[in-house]
Amino acid sequence: MIIANWKANGSLAANISWHKKLTQILPGNNFSDIGIASSNIHFIQIKKIFEKSNLKVGLQDIDFNGGARTGSVSASMASDAGCNFSLLGHSERRYLFNEDNTLIRTKIQAAISNRIKPILCIGESEECLEEKETRDFLKSQLIGALSGVELNKHAVIAYEPIWAIGSGNTPAPKDINLIHEFIKDVVQSTSANNIEPKVLYGGSVSHKNAEAFFDEKSIDGALVGGASLKASSFADIIKIYRKVKRK
Fold this sequence. Notes:
With 247 residues, the chain is an alpha/beta fold. It has helices at residues 12-25, 43-49, 75-80, 91-96, 101-113, 126-130, 134-146, 173-190, 210-214, 231-245; strands at 2-5, 34-38, 56-59, 85-88, 117-122, 156-159, 198-202, 222-224.
């Protein structure tokens, strides 16, 4: 699956233009392998303009509860609006909003309870990489967020090394593949029902490097940030993904 993370970008007019361009490049309405994590304010618009396709529309975050939590969108509210999936634990949420693994686990459980697919984001800092602590750090994130959680067969993890996001620097595809294999093993042993997840790669994904990533067996798709804001670039990544994974 290829998921666009638009972060705090977009406008009503720009979103319509983006949709028009994408559907010109990718005609038809079979978009089951595509997801868009739009801003909360644009969610309904994106649902509407893609209503004739099976593209998945999700949110970049949800809250575990409703009520007296000003500014939040609860899991039940998101589900009621037709949210298909939610990113949870993105590095920007962890860093800017001080979200820890305990809170993220609570959000994952709320998502599952409300029939929303949680996409757990994990990733190490550059300091962690230099200290050769990547695997230990990722394992702590996975155990902290998923210990005792009963996942379903569609569980998804997004591996985004923090040092690669928006930097243009990426790990070698073979190294990402090894990390993805490690993630699958940890999740399988950590989750309550031993599910092996799909693992997406995120962090400076572009049409220039996508094929090398998707050629690797354990890279199941991508979470695309900056390159998803331009419909033509995002469409190029999708075309590469389909070409490689449907061989």
